[in-house]
Design goal:
The complex is a heterodimer. Chain A is mainly alpha-helical. Chain A contains twelve helices and no strands. In chain A, helix 3 packs across helix 11, helix 4 packs across helix 7 and helix 5 packs across helix 7. The radius of gyration of chain A is 22 Å and the shape is globular. By secondary structure, chain B is of the alpha+beta class. Chain B is 28% helix and 30% strand. Chain B contains ten helices and 18 strands. A six-stranded mixed beta sheet of chain B has the order 6-7-8-3-9-10, with helices on both faces. Chain B has a five-stranded antiparallel beta sheet with strand order 13-17-14-15-16. The radius of gyration of chain B is 23 Å and the shape is elongated. The chains are: A mainly alpha, B alpha+beta. Chains A and B meet through helix 8 and helix 9 of A and strand 6, helix 2 and helix 4 of B.
Chain lengths: 267, 345
């Protein structure tokens, strides 16, 4: 075996070992622990009233927050790339904030804005809208933490495709809207899809920001990650593991859906 | 549909891309905008298409002022240097794009697209994606796409710039024939004077955002308006204030009043053509173009003294050229089109 092949194998072993120990082993153990005594205990724990409610609330958050951020992310990317403006660096920096700031801090800042004596509290209270300790607050927190994903994935693709295809569409008689739908969006779709997948995974699993603004009330404002944590604290291990496995499966489904779409595209 | 541009001005920041440009393109003609990179030729073409807005001046197509019209209403066919193919669409969908936008019925679209694919010799490739085509095929697809909507005028921005020499030559001939058949007013941008002379009936030479001269290939070659045009449309030597084409330098063996003494530095045989490089008494380097027969008759050898007689020498005193080219380097080094202009847009 030549030196370069042996070092290549060494590197490969190191990479695979790292992934195996740090990523795969914990997940396998989680699945093993969950189903140690059959499928019934975790299944029952999740299908109890609170578990089901947590699942529904989590899915509702995904269904609202992800499309919102997708639309906003695509518009924002277009602004950043296609409309050169001196203040673009500021927008760019602000969009990255949720990556940099701890989710707990995000939760607290929402608290200051919508809580008692918050800026928006009087108006919202008058309108009878409760943001904190209810669904709107959870969705706001999830939108906040998942803002950057679609923008970050879409901007480089937009930059790479350039403007020539769009200009060609214009010369062929397409207006701005037609150009966007028929040329720009199809050209950037994989960037957007990847952003959507990452946003979905993030919203599914968001814990810190949600735990601050939701109040973590079982059966009311408890999302799946909060459900996991509460059950774990109360030594209800089948519930905690069952919900954890469910979360992991949901994320896997999202990732696999993307891969299937991509493969179909390539064929 | 004739095209005219009147007093066009365009700046990108500090860079003046167009400086009081006016051109007149007759109906049905094939006109080349010729110039080095940065001369404003692409900007002018893009302004005609509406892809750039002019700071001042107007664009008229068939006598109508279209300066305020958006691109999609100008009915121009535009072909880009790098094809601008819609990568996610098949050849068929690319060519049919403009028709679909115009809400044509499916069977009419099919008939028209088939017709065009035949015209550009891409029948049988309708279901391919652009990534599966060669450069030449992609550019023909782009041309078919532009022609599908029956544009009033056809604009080509360095259409063959990204192709290799052989394909380039073929497409040149092919474009000329296509124009003869379709007779749509066509403007194409190039930095290659040979390409411009080969394809176009009328040439507009541009430099530093201005039109230096326009006319037929013969006009420009034989009666250049200034030093820039003379050196851009052909090769040139400089004798003090005078400019002479290499084939207008006679080499004789005996001195007389009309000759200058020079030393033969190098003789390069390029097939039928012979390139003789000489140094004059004052150190000026010039070169003469001879045929093989002439060289044999003169029995020239490197290192030998010979006598030159320039004929058809031109001088442009008084018509101060805007950008004197180095006299012994006939064509700057035009390459890459007007990338720096369009990038600033």
């Amino acid at each position: 075996m030549s030196r370069s092949t042996s070092s290549r194998w060494g590197l490969r072993a190191l990479g695979l070992g790292y992934i195996a120990v740090l990523l795969v082993a914990p997940l396998i153990l989680l699945f093993y622990k969950t189903f140690e005594e059959g499928i019934a205990p975790p299944f029952e724990a999740i299908t109890s009233g609170d578990g089901l409610h947590a699942l529904k609330l989590t899915l509702l958050t995904v269904v609202i927050a992800v499309p919102l951020n997708t639309v906003f992310g695509v518009i924002c990317s277009l602004l950043l790339v296609r409309h050169k403006w001196k203040g673009n660096w500021l927008i760019d920096a602000v969009i990255n904030l949720p990556f940099a700031i701890s989710p707990v801090v995000i939760g607290l800042s929402l608290f200051l804005l919508y809580g008692k004596q918050g800026w928006f509290e009087p108006g919202l209270a008058e309108a009878g809208i409760k943001v904190l300790f209810s669904t709107p607050g959870i969705i706001l927190a999830c939108v906040f933490v998942s803002v950057p994903f679609v923008v970050r994935e879409t901007v480089p693709v937009l930059q790479e495709i350039g403007t020539e295809q769009e200009q060609a569409a214009e010369t062929l008689g397409a207006n701005g809207w037609q150009t966007f739908w028929r040329v720009t969006l199809p050209a950037i779709r994989w960037g957007v899809v990847y952003g959507v997948v990452l946003s979905t995974a993030r919203v599914l699993g968001e814990f810190g920001a949600v735990s601050v603004v939701s109040g973590n009330i079982s059966g009311e404002t408890q999302t799946l990650p909060l459900f996991v944590e509460k059950n774990y604290e109360n030594f209800n291990l089948p519930g905690a593991f069952g919900a954890a496995v469910l979360l992991a499966l949901l994320a896997l489904v999202v990732l696999m859906a993307m891969n299937l779409l991509k493969r179909k595209e390539a064929a | 549909m004739g095209i005219s541009v009147e007093g066009a001005n365009k700046c990108f920041g500090d860079f003046q891309a167009l400086d009081e440009v006016s051109i007149e393109v007759p109906d049905g003609s094939l006109t080349a905008l010729l110039g080095p990179s940065g001369s404003g030729k692409s900007t002018l073409l893009r302004a005609i298409a509406g892809l750039e807005t002019l700071d001042a001046g107007r664009v008229l197509i068939d006598g109508e002022d279209v300066s305020k019209k958006p691109t999609q209403k100008r009915e121009v066919g535009f072909v880009f240097q790098h094809y601008a193919a819609f990568k996610h669409m098949t050849v068929y969908e690319n060519v049919g794009f403009g028709l679909k936008i115009r809400k044509w019925k499916k069977d009419k679209v099919r008939a028209r697209v088939d017709e065009l694919l035949n015209l550009v010799q891409l029948h049988g490739l309708a279901d391919r994606y652009p990534s599966q085509l060669s450069g030449g095929q992609r550019q023909r697809m782009a041309l078919a796409r532009a022609l599908a909507v029956e544009p009033q005028v056809l604009l080509l921005d360095e259409p063959f710039g990204a192709l290799d020499a052989k394909v380039r030559k073929d497409l040149r001939t092919w474009l000329r024939r296509l124009h003869e058949e379709m007779n749509v007013t066509t403007i194409f941008v190039t930095h290659d004077q040979e390409e411009a002379m080969d394809v176009a009936g009328q040439l507009v030479v541009m430099n530093q955002g201005r039109v230096e001269q326009s006319g037929s290939a013969d006009d420009l070659y034989d009666k250049p308006a200034n030093e820039f045009v003379m050196s851009f449309v052909g090769e040139v030597n400089r004798f003090g204030d005078h400019f002479v084409r290499p084939h207008d330098i006679e080499i004789v063996r005996d001195r007389d009043d009309s000759t200058e003494e020079a030393m033969v530095q190098r003789i390069v045989a390029l097939g039928f053509e012979i390139r003789v490089e000489l140094v004059l008494g004052d150190g000026t380097e010039v070169w003469a173009q001879l045929t093989r027969g002439e060289l044999q008759r003169l029995e020239l050898r490197e290192g030998q003294i010979a006598y030159l007689r320039p004929v058809h020498a031109k001088s442009f005193n008084g018509s101060a050229p805007s950008n004197p080219h180095g006299a012994s380097t006939p064509q700057g080094s035009p390459d890459g089109g007007d990338a720096e202009i369009t990038a600033a847009a």
